[in-house]
Every structure is written in structure tokens, then in C-alpha cells.
Amino acid sequence: MTLEAGAELATKTYPITRASLVRYAGASGDFNPIHWSDRIATAVGLPGVIAHGMFTMALVARAVSEWTDGAEVVDFGAKFTNPVVVPDDDEGTSVTISGTVKSVEDGLATIALTVVSTGSTTGEPQKVLGMPKVSVRV
């Protein structure tokens, strides 16, 4: 793996369906009904069923792992800015992740990320994580 400052990393897109949410709920133990019930999700003010925040973060970690051949993650952070709304159909939505290597210093590469989803009420891509970045050991 060679990461150089300024390098643009290949965009990764991962599908998310209601079935994905059920599998993640089983693996994580997070059965909050906002992740499977439209009735509950809308009752609490959400536009519909949303993906688990940590599921979204796991997809970002997957992209980073693919980009870096599984390099050790030293720092990983973001703010949840918008939910990933997952419609109740066979298509679901997707999360698209892109990254730019900001720096490579002292054995660490810092990657700035952009994470968007089409899972919004408008159907337009919407940023779902604010200020996401990761540092990996190189």
C-alpha cells in the first residue's frame, strides 16, 4: 500500500436495504424500532426508517480498509449530520464514500472523507457525516 498526499481514492458505493438493517441489528443487538418500523420512525420525527449510525461508520471503515489493504486505523471520527433513510422496497439506498489523502507524516496517512447517501426525502445525494477523517499507519 502506497498513499501519497493529494491522492484521490477510488469512490466506493455500498447498498443498504431493510434486510441489511435487520442483519446489522442482529449482529449489534440494536433493535431500536427506528431502524425497522416506519410508524415508530415517523412518530419520533424522522422521515422514515433510518440506518444505524454505527452501520454507516462500519461501511466507511470498510472503504478505508479496502483503500489501505487493511492498514491499522489509528484515529477515526465524524459527526452524524443527516440520517440515512432506507425505503421499504427491494432497492433501498446506498452510501457513497470518497477520500483524499491529506497528509503522510511520521508513518501516518490522514484521509479526509466525503460520505453521501441518496437516502433522503428529496432523493438527492446528501452528506450524512460531517468532518469525517481517518488516520492509518503506513
What does this structure look like?
- This protein is of the alpha+beta class and 138 residues long.
- The chain has one domain: Thiol Ester Dehydrase, Chain A (Roll).
- 24% of the residues lie in helices and 37% in strands.
- The chain has helices spanning 18-28, 38-43, 53-68, and strands at residues 8-16, 73-80, 93-105, 108-117, 126-127, 129-137.
- Strand 3 (93-105) and strand 4 form a beta hairpin.
- The longest helix has 16 residues, at 53-68.
- The protein is elongated and about 50 Å long.
- One of its GO terms (molecular function) is fatty acid synthase activity.
Quick structural summary:
It is built from three helices and six strands, in the order βαααβββββ.
* Residues in β-strands, percent: 35-45%
Task: Please state the structural category.
Answer: alpha+beta
Number of domains: 1
Radius of gyration: 16 Å
Q: So, CATH architecture?
A: Roll
Overall number of strands: 6
Distance between the first and last residues' Cα: 8 Å
Low-confidence stretches: none
Helix proportion of residues, in percent? 10-25%
Biggest sheet statistics: 6 strands, antiparallel
- Relevant CATH superfamily: Hotdog Thioesterase
Overall residue-averaged pLDDT value: 95
Order of helices and strands: EHHHEEEEE
> Class, according to the CATH hierarchy?
Alpha Beta
CATH-assigned fold name: Thiol Ester Dehydrase, Chain A
Based on Cα principal axes, name the global outline. Answer: elongated
How many H/I helices?
Answer: 3
GO molecular function: fatty acid synthase activity
Organism: Nocardioides albus
GO biological process, one term: fatty acid biosynthetic process
Protein name: Acyl dehydratase
